[in-house]
Amino acid sequence: MTGETAAEAAAEPARQLRVFLVDDHAMFRAGVRAELGDAVDLVGEAGGVAEAVARIQATRPDVVLLDVHMPDGGGRAVLERIRPALPEVRFLALSVSDAAEDVIGLIRAGARGYVTKTISGAELVDALRRVAEGDAVFSPRLAGFVLDAFASRGERPLSDPELDQLTNREREVLRLLARGYAYKEIAKELFISIKTVETHVSNVLRKLQMSNRYELSRWAADRRLV
What we know:
single chain; Arc Repressor Mutant, subunit A; alpha/beta; 226 residues; globular; 12 helices; 6 strands; Rossmann fold; 2 domains
């Protein structure tokens, strides 16, 4: 009997990693679901902060796969509301942004890793498993941001009064604009309309008191946002 029980236990598959997905784009969430397939147990998903907080508290996943920029506060807001109540839940940021301030902000808020949306499905599964096991995981070039920031903490502030007045979405648009993206390309990258891109650019120009995209590009380059 004891031998049979041990054999049965050995034959039992390991418990699947329980993952919760937070991203405000339904089409992107569908793509992630397809990429993850049966490699993890996707226990839920949400498209906004309040919804994410409620569902994460209900499902208690092992890892939350978290978008950085969302209209109602973004990944940092989810982190700050969940971590005090559920410190055992780990967070992996998944974002189109590879800007230093986004990476550092999420890590300081408590994320265990940060990868960009160019990651493959197999790499993403591996990153989720490593984060669940307690490792810190970063896309290669992002690790340098974190090392530099924590090596030089206290030497220079990470806040910028001018930058702080921009919304998360406006920062994303500004960064892509400064990299030379056309409005159509920005719209495709961020899953928004060209008209919405134009509105964001107008808002950024007004807030920063600039007159054209070339001034914005120089401003962004000076702050190493590109």
